Amino acid sequence: xxxxxxxxxxxxxxxxxxxHVWRLSLMMVVWMAFMAITRFEKxxxxxxxxxxxxxxxxxxxxxxxxxxxMITGGIxxxxxxxxxxxxxxxxxxxxxxxTADGGLPVYAIPLSFALSMLMGAIAGVFNGALVSKIRxxxxxxxxxxxxxxxxxxxxxxxGKAVSKLPRVYATSINSKLFGLIPVQLIFFAxxxxxxxxxxxxxxxxxxxxxxxxSSTAARFSGIKTxxxxxxxxxxxxxxxxxxxxxxxxxxxSARADxxxxxxxxxxxxVVLGGVNPSGGSGRISGVVLAILLLQMLQTGINRFPExxxxxxxxxxxxVLILIMVLNYFTENNIRLFGAKRRV
Amino acid sequence: MQKVxxxxxxxxxxxxxxxxxxxxxxxxxxxxxxxxPNNLVDILSAAVVPGIFAVGAFxxxxxxxxxxxxxxxxxxxxxxxxSLLLESNYQGGIWLPIxxxxxxxxxxxxxxxxxxxxxxxxxxxxxxxxxSVFKGFMQGTLNSRQFAVIPPGMKNFGLSPLxxxxxxxxxxxxxxxxxxxxxxxxxxxxxxxxxxxxxxxxIYAIGGNEVxxxxxxxxxxxxxxxxxxxxxMISSLAGLMRTCMMTQMHPTNMLGMEMNIIAGVVLGGxxxxxxxxxxxxxxxxxxxxxxxxxxxxxxxxxxxxxxxxVGALIIVGTGVSAVQVARANRVHVSKKAALKEVRQ
Lengths: 343, 344
Prior knowledge:
The structure holds 2 protein chains of 2 kinds.
Chain A lengths: L1 H16 L1 H25 L2 H26 L7 H19 L10 H25 L5 H20 L9 H7 L2 E2 L3 E2 H19 L1 H11 L1 H6 L4 H27 L10 H11 L11 H19 L8 H21 L12
Antiparallel strand pairs in A: 1-2
Helix pairs in contact in A: 2-13, 3-8, 3-11, 3-12, 3-13, 4-5, 4-6, 4-11, 5-6, 5-11, 7-11, 8-9, 9-11, 12-13
Chain B lengths: L1 H9 L2 H19 L5 H10 L1 H15 L7 H18 L7 H24 L4 H19 L10 H8 L1 E6 L6 E5 L1 H18 L1 H11 L1 H6 L4 H27 L11 H10 L11 H16 L1 H4 L6 H23 L1 H14 L1
Antiparallel strand pairs in B: 1-2
Helix pairs in contact in B: 2-14, 4-9, 4-10, 4-12, 4-13, 4-14, 5-6, 5-7, 5-12, 6-7, 6-12, 8-12, 9-10, 9-12, 10-12, 13-14, 13-16
C-alpha cells in the first residue's frame, strides 16, 4: 500500500511546487493537440515554427524585464518606452554611420549595439533611482518615465518613423543560424539564461526574492536594498533595450509609438507565468512558458481566417482571470467537487 | 491662522493648486490667451471626460486598488449602446442612451467587482484581464467599426451648448457642452457618497486597512463590489459623453487614456496605497494634466514636447510627495511598514 501511494504523493508535491508551470504546460498541450487535430498541415510546418520563434523575442525580452522587477515587488511599465527610445537611437546612429552606397562599416553595428545597451542601462538606472532613492511607488515612477522616454523619442524623431536603414542590420538579425534557428531566438535564449542564472544561482537572485517578500526584513538583515533595486531596474532596462533592437530589425524602421500594446501584454504574461504581483515569488520557466503559450495562441488563431484575430485579447484576458480564480480556489482549499480538503 | 497654514502645508492640494496657478499665469504671460473666456471654456470642456474617469479611478485608488480597465469598459458600453440604438433606428432624446449605457456599465463593473470583491483577487491583475476581455469582446464578438453617424438624440445632445463664450478681442467662440452638467452631477454624487454615506467611508476604511475595516464591521466584499459597479456606471457615462461630443463613434479612441488619468489622480495627492486623498485634489491634478496637454501651443512649445512635459510632471509631482511623506514621518512610516509586513 505504501509503495503505491508514494509516487502519487511525490507527484502531488511536484505539482504543488510548480503549479503554474504544470497548468501552463497542460494548456499548451491542449492547444497543441487542438491545432494538430484542426489545422495540422498549416500549423506544424518548419516555416511556421520558425516564424513563431522569431516573433516572440521582442515582447518576450520586455516580459523578462518586467518579471525581475515584479519579483522585487515592483513593476516596470517603461519597457516599451525604453525599447522605442533605444531602437530610435540605434536607427539614427546607423543612418549616420552608413556609407554612401548604403552599406555599413564593420564597427558600426557593434558600436551602436553597445551604445544602445548603455542607453537601456541608463534608463533602467534612472528608474531604479526613482524607485529606491526617492521612494516613488514603482508603478507611478515607471509610468512617468515611460511617458518621458516616449516623449524624448517623439521629440528626437518629430513623431515620424525613422526608416530607410542600411539593409545589413535587418537581414542579419532576420537570418537563421545554420539555416534553422532564428537569430532573434538566440538573443532571447541568451538573456533568459543570464536571468535564470542570476535568479537561481547567485546571491543577487536570492536577495531580490527577499526584497520582494519583505523589504523591511531584507533591509534589517543588512541587504543594501537601494543598490539591488537599481541593479534590478537596470537589468530590466537592458532587456528592454535588447527587445527594442530586435523590434527595429523586425520592422526595419523605428518610431516612438511602436508596440504600445506590449506594456499590458507583458504584465499579463508575467502574471500568467506565476509571478506574484506583490513580489517574492515566480520563476523564469513559468514566464517563458507563458510567452510561448501566447505566441502559439496568436499564431494558431491566425490560422482560422474566419475568426477575428481580436478574439485573442478576449481569450488572453479570460485565461488570466481564470488562472487567478483557480489560484483562489487552491489557496483557500475550496474544492468545487468532492469533500473539503483537510488542512 | 498659523494652525491653518500648518495644516494646509501638510496636504497636497495647496501645492498642486499653486503649481496649476503658476502654470496658468506663465501661459498667460507667454501668450496673453489663457485667461480668455473661450480658452477657459475649451479647457473645461476638454476636462469633462477625463474628469469623470478620474472620479472613478480616484475611488478605486482610495480603496487600495487600481483600475486600468475603465477606458475599455467605457468604449465597450458606449459602442454597444450606439450600435443598439442605430440598429433600432432610435429617434428619441438622450435619456434612453444614458440609461442603457449606464446599465451596461453596471453590468461590466459587476464583472470587475465579482473578481476583485468576492474572490479578493488583486485589482491590477483583474482589471488588466478584464480590459483585455472587454476590448476583445468589442472588437471580436461585436465586430466593432467606426460609425460616422450616431442617433440624432445623442448628436443633438453633443452639439447643443450650455452657453457660448466669445473672446471679445479675437471673436473666437467656444461652446460649453451640456455634458459638463453630467460631469458636475457625477462630482456631486461621488462627493456625497464618499463623504456622507457609510458606503463611502467604507471605501476609505478598506483602503486604509482592509482587516481593520472588516473588524470594524464593514462588509469588504459588498463595499468593493458596489464601488466597482458605481465606477463602471460613471465610466460608461463618460464614454457616452465622449461619443456625443465627438458626434461619431470611434471604438478604439479612448483606449490608452488610463495611465494619464491615473497620473492626474495621484498628482492630486491621492495615496497610491489607498486610504487617503480628496476629490478636490483629484480634480486639481486632472485639470493640471489637461492644461498641460492642451496649452502647449499657447506656451509656444511644439506639441511634440507634450509627452516629455507630462512625464516630467508625473515624476516630479509624485517624487515631491514621496519625499514629503518620507521626511514628515520617517519613524512612523517604518514602524507601520514593519507592522504591516509582520502581519503578512
